[in-house]
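Action item from last week, closing it out:
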Amino acid sequence: MTRSSADYAALLLRVSMGVMFLAHGLLLKVFTFGPAGTAAYFESIGYPAALAYAVILAEIVGGAMLIAGVHVRIVALALVPVLIGATLQHLPAGWVFSAQGGGWEFPAFWTVALLVQALLGAGAHAAVADALPARLRARPA
């Protein structure tokens, strides 16, 4: 099978986002703040504490699945609500993420990157090839 540059672009996007999700979920939320600290933070900003555990799980498992290339389209779409929630939470701080409280530029961009990944699919070297329903596959001309 011949690979295109788009296959390798999808691979690069998928692995880089997977690493970022793992770092965000495991290093930041689990090892830095701890699950209980993350849950307390979620409560302090108006989200239920239980949502923190769901987000931690989504970021760690989703990140690992992106890196491995397992059900990439589904995983990318499943992670979109996590980033929409983060974007909404950062709106009051303004655009620039370096602002106090963090702006919304980074989570908004990450949301778009997930949507691009869902459109591109897994790309090269995926453990499980993406299967599109027949109605969504390109039809030969």
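Closing note: Helices lie at 5-32, 34-44, 49-68, 72-90, 105-120.
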